[in-house]
Amino acid sequence: TKDLFLGMRNDDVFELQKRFVKEGLATYAPTGYFGTLTLASARAYQLKYRIIPAWGYIGVKTRTILNSTISATPLPIHLDEL
């Protein structure tokens, strides 16, 4: 829900990095620090989804696509709850 950009360090950046790895846009281990590698991955993501300009800044346009492409994982169903 917030903008992410070069120099930031937090859990949101960590989750963003995990997403980039999952989509094959990064090969580094997530650290939570938005450095030059994360910037390059963000630009690649933006180009992949035709987000212009592709500066690597995670703003409204990029967040909208990130949030809309999250695949929902179904919750397990327990027979005793039916």
Summary?
The chain has three helices and no strands.
Output the radius of gyration. Answer: 15 Å
Please give the share of residues in helix: 40-55%
Distance between the termini: 35 Å
Q: Which band does the percent of strand residues land in?
A: under 5%
Largest sheet: none
Structural class by SSE content = mainly alpha
Morphology: globular
**Helices and strands, in N-to-C order?**
HHH
Chain-averaged pLDDT: 89
Low-confidence stretches: none
> How many strands?
0
- Helix run count: 3
Characterization of the model:
The structure is a single chain. The chain has 82 residues and is mainly α. Helix content is 41%, strand content 0%. It has helices spanning 11-22, 36-48, 60-68. The chain is globular, with a radius of gyration of 15 Å. The chain starts with 10 loop residues before the first helix and ends in a 14-residue tail after the last helix.
